[in-house]
Recover the amino acids of this structure.
């Protein structure tokens, strides 16, 4: 039996509540290292990609040339882990879990970068589909993967990204099925959010982008579609990660998928109209 | 041989040039009674539907309830053939050709309404797809039917309109094929123009709206589609005409298809953003 006066020990899997700042504080103090979906609803969650400064110019141009899969929200100063304008953020501690890649290979995940951070690191903060999914749901449309607590189906498409320096490769896309009238509405709603992948890149004819079998080629758990649904494909934030891995950058650190950076900006602030 | 000093007699098939006002003047003076596509490019051309006042309230509610096929731009005062705000317009003379329906049956076409106009007539002016087609072309997309000097394929769909009084019936739709990425762009572009049919009502799965055979069920000349194209369906201005005919209104006068009212408003003025 636990005495009432005894406070339970902090657990890293207790989902924090409250404002984005409160959630980042819990993560920063090591009280939470889990996925961030559903936390601080309404606020922008972002993809993170950290590279040595030697690669930053090329990567910046890669993002600029491929805004659908790589919508750039912010870039830090060299060596500076803060993110002015997005909250009181320390990128070394405020993401629940990080993936570390060396020479393009995954080597470990860590819960902070205090020992790995370097003075030549540049961090790229990229928009994430959570933002436009909120807009889709608020428009009254359903997202089956959200209802099932899953992620959307993900594919490596045959759409080529525009290269920059060593960064290149096929576009990774996520797929969400909709009935035709809802598909039109989903295109309208997501078009308002170019900073978080924006409108779909493809609709309805997966074989034209190298996807001959929706089920077999799905890189994440496949969810069956209805006969009356069309597949819509959006640029995916895994695209830059693949480009970085294929470039065999000596060191690259990203957020661990689903373990995002929670910022102080409202998703609605990213709507262009 | 024609003497140089002899001016050729005005011909009703000589396409007029110039401003919307100059084109209407030519039509009003009987110098032109042909189709208006391509005239006064950039200016709103509109569908016309004239009914006795007894039917006007129901028809107004029918348009309000079905804005995709029946986007209402203006309604006149009872018995008044002018259209303040849209130019120096006399609706009795300024449309090249009118179709007259009695008890729902076509009886004749005429080039003016001077002898048919009644003190209880109300005119409804409805948006037309020419406006959004201009926006599609300006966005750099191609429209095959325009290139061929034809109209788009038209279908009676199984989508039911919302009834009002005696007005009801299936929605007539027009179809334009696009490759998937262009389809997304066409949805974005036409979404900006809700006053002229706006976004499509359907995409990609014609059997879901009662169209099992795109070629056989086309009411206007069918144009073949590419294997890499999706059909997009927009609400069509023939829908209210069908509703009026099916309501067997004692008298109804419309523009003759393709012989539109040319107004002084710019298409671009109808864009909502």
């Amino acid at each position: 039996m636990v005495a009432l006066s005894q406070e339970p020990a902090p657990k890293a899997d207790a989902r924090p509540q409250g404002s984005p700042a409160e959630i980042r504080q819990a993560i920063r103090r090591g009280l939470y290292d889990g996925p961030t979906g559903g936390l601080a609803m309404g606020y922008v969650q972002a993809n993170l990609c950290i590279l040595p400064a030697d690669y930053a110019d090329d990567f910046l141009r890669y993002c600029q040339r491929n805004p659908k899969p790589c919508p750039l929200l912010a870039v830090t100063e060299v060596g500076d882990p803060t993110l002015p304008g997005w909250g009181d953020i320390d990128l070394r501690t405020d993401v629940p879990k990080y993936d570390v890649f060396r020479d393009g290979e995954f080597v470990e995940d860590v819960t902070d970068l205090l020992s790995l951070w370097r003075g030549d690191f540049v961090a790229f903060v990229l928009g994430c589909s959570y933002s436009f999914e909120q807009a889709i749901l608020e428009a009254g449309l359903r997202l089956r993967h959200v209802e099932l607590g899953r992620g959307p189906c993900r594919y490596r498409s045959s759409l080529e990204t525009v290269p920059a320096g060593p960064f290149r490769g096929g576009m990774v896309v996520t797929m969400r099925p909709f009935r035709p009238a809802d598909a039109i509405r989903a295109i309208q709603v997501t078009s308002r959010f170019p900073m978080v992948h924006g409108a779909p890149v493809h609709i309805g004819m997966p074989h034209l982008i190298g996807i001959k079998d929706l089920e077999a080629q799905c890189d994440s758990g496949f969810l069956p579609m209805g006969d009356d649904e069309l597949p819509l494909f959006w640029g995916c934030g895994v695209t830059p990660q693949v480009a970085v891995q294929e470039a065999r950058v000596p060191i690259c650190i990203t957020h661990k998928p689903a373990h995002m950076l929670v910022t102080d900006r409202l998703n609605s602030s990213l709507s262009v109209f």
Notes: The two ends of chain A are 56 Å apart (CA to CA).
